[in-house]
Amino acid sequence: MKPRVAVALFGPEGRGSFNESGLQGALRARASGHELAVHWIAPAEPRGRADALRRLCREGVDLLVAHGGQGDAPVAELCGEFPDTRFAITQGSHLSSNTACYEVLQEQSAFLAGVLAGLASGTRVVGHLSGEKVRPGLKGRAAFAHGVRAAAPDCRFVTAFCGHQHDPERAYRTALALQREGADIVFAMIDGGRDGVNQACRETPLRQIGNVLDWVARDPKVFVASAVADSGLGVTAAIEDFAAGRFVPGTRKSQGLESPESVRLVMSPELSATFGQTIDRWRERLIAGAVVPADTYEGPELDIPS
Description:
- This protein is an alpha/beta fold.
- The chain folds into 2 domains: 5-105 and 231-255, 3-Layer(aba) Sandwich (Rossmann fold), CATH 3.40.50.2300; 106-229 and 260-288, 3-Layer(aba) Sandwich (Rossmann fold).
- It contains 10 helices and 12 strands.
- The strands form 2 sheets. The protein has a 6-stranded parallel beta sheet, sandwiched between helices. A 6-stranded mixed beta sheet has the order 7-6-8-9-10-12, with helices on both faces.
């Protein structure tokens, strides 16, 4: 009998590039012959997410793949309750005797995005925004800020979390707040709320660096770059490893800039022509381990009223 596999995507169905990446990873696994069910987990708080995953486990699941750092808290609660179920968390951090993590190193492309933003900013103010304060978002913010400092120590860095990955209105207000602080480039690590950031960019001189997917190809008028990190590859790898008997609980599998299909910085033609060689040199240093992106940020943060 084939293993029972469930993939959990957190947020409104069909919304957001991070979930799009995860869905494509599940569909790749299905196209390769693996049977699986995709479930959209609507609750926004950890308790509701844990309850939703608990219902899936009670129905009978051999492998549950939780896509994203939002899966850390609920899986940490459930892995002891369902010891015979294997859990995989993409971009997560919780490890246990029946849990493994699969990640693409978003922090590496985020660092390069910070280098580019610092070099390209005309106002010498660079912004960052995200939704929820989950570990992948915090690591991405820290790496981006590190890249800005490394390449452009004269730049001011402004950052804010709007509190929700899928709320365009909150993301819009947050982007405008960063622009009022003087930012002309913003790194937006956001999912279903990205339309709000895009709207702010169309209404102001603010320009955006995206993440997960190649946003430059999708909307070149808004995006000057994108810190690509195809997290859906972790979904595919977890399912394939489990089916082949290679799934090892308590371990983490990572892919970074050495695999450009997984992680890379995409730039607009104009920025590539001006800064491409510099970015390549930083990329080589990251791959060689000569530079390690910071994983914590201790600086100030804007308080955005809800």
